[in-house]
Amino acid sequence: MAALSTERESQFQARDLEVMQTAAGQLGVAVENARLFTEEQRRARHLAFLNSISKMAISARMRRR
Q1: Three-class SS of residue 1?
Q2: Mapping DSSP to helix (H, G, I), strand (E, B) and coil, where does residue 10 land?
Q3: pLDDT digits (tens, 9 = 90+) for 15-58
Q4: Is the dihedral of CA 37, 40, 42, 45 positive or negative?
Q5: 41 lies in some domain
Q6: What's the structural domain count of the chain?
């Protein structure tokens, strides 16, 4: 009787599976958002670097005139 009770306790109900599927989907979205955020941070640093180089080039050119 105890084995039967333990076996039933470990079974998931349909609602449990729905909740886990929803959580897994949300986790996937969160991971993708984190990846996109990291990529955007890298792109922003790159553009800031290019911007600073452009400003230095313009400044040097203006001084030569």
Answers
A1: coil
A2: coil
A3: 999 999 999 999 999 999 999 999 999 999 999 999 999 999 99
A4: negative
A5: yes
A6: 1
Q: What is the pLDDT of residue 33?
A: 98
The model's pTM is 0.64
Residue 60 lies in a domain: yes
The pair of three-digit structure tokens given for residue 30, joined into one six-digit string: 């969160």
Residue 5: inside a domain, yes or no?
no
Domain around 57: 22-65
For 12-50, b where at least 16 C-beta lie within 10 A, e where not — what string? eeeeeeeeeeeeeeeeeeeeeeeeeeeeeeeeeeeeeee
In a domain, 11, yes or no: no
